[in-house]
């Protein structure tokens, strides 16, 4: 995934001022910054759920996006969400979602309406929906809010498994002690990203990104197609 010269303003407030980011297959990137720096705005722009004023995003393969606030219908059960998203992603069944529910230890709540779930369980379902179609590029906005310690560790196990399989992962985090987990730390300040390596970077050759967008994280009532183009310039 490559983002070039992203600009976004809300009225007179310029949030992104030419932000740029490249994430390679098998690479884990942290986006950090002060509260209000525009981290969630950046991730929404990368995911295609927010139009930028200028700039370009190129994504190779399928994209998964886990927003900070769960995108759930309070009247639908977890299993109904899995079935809906499986259909939106054109999967033959919600079986991958059931497997993730087991891994994240909330399978017993699959018959529970989202509105009756605890915040942590809703966040588990939110993460599951982003992972359901096994995306090549994964964007996670503080995805472990409300997780207990065991679930937090399970989350990182899921991320590491996908990293080993060559998935590109971007995580917004504010936890300083997590930084050694990442290959690149990208600080967003003044609307500009300043990436620096943390560990040996995973940069396989021959992985130039093609200009297109895979689906945004679909919301109930919105059957997003798998490969829908988007671009602002």
UniProtKB/TrEMBL annotation:
The keyword 4Fe-4S does not apply. Residues 200-233 are annotated as: Disordered. SUPFAM superfamilies: P-loop containing nucleoside triphosphate hydrolases. The keyword ATP-binding applies. Gene3D superfamilies: P-loop containing nucleotide triphosphate hydrolases. Residues 1-215 form the ABC transporter domain. GO terms for molecular function: ATP binding; ATP hydrolysis activity. CDD domains: ABC_DR_subfamily_A (cd03230). This is ABC transporter ATP-binding protein. The lineage of its organism: Bacteria, Bacillati, Actinomycetota, Actinomycetes, Kitasatosporales.
């Amino acid at each position: 995934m490559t983002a070039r010269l992203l600009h976004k303003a809300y009225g007179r407030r310029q949030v992104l001022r030419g932000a740029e980011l490249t994430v390679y297959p098998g690479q884990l990137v942290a986006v950090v910054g002060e509260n209000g720096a525009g981290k969630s705005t950046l991730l929404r722009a990368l995911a295609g759920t927010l139009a930028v004023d200028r700039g370009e995003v190129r994504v190779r393969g399928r994209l998964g996006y886990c927003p900070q606030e769960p995108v759930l219908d309070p009247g639908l059960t977890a299993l109904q969400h899995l079935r809906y998203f499986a259909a939106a992603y054109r999967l033959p069944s919600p079986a991958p979602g059931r497997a993730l529910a087991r891994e994240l230890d909330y399978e017993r709540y699959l018959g529970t309406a989202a509105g009756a779930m605890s915040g942590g369980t809703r966040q588990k379902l939110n993460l599951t929906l982003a992972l359901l179609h096994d995306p090549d590029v994964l964007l996670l906005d503080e995805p472990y809010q409300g997780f207990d310690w065991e679930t937090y560790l399970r989350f990182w196990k899921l991320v590491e498994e996908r990293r080993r399989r060559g998935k590109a992962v971007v995580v917004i985090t504010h936890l300083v002690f997590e930084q050694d987990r990442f290959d690149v730390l990208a600080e967003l300040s003044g609307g500009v990203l300043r990436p620096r390596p943390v560990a040996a970077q995973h940069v396989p050759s021959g992985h130039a990104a093609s200009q297109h967008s895979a689906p945004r994280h679909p919301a109930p009532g919105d059957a997003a197609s798998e490969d829908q183009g988007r671009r602002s310039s």
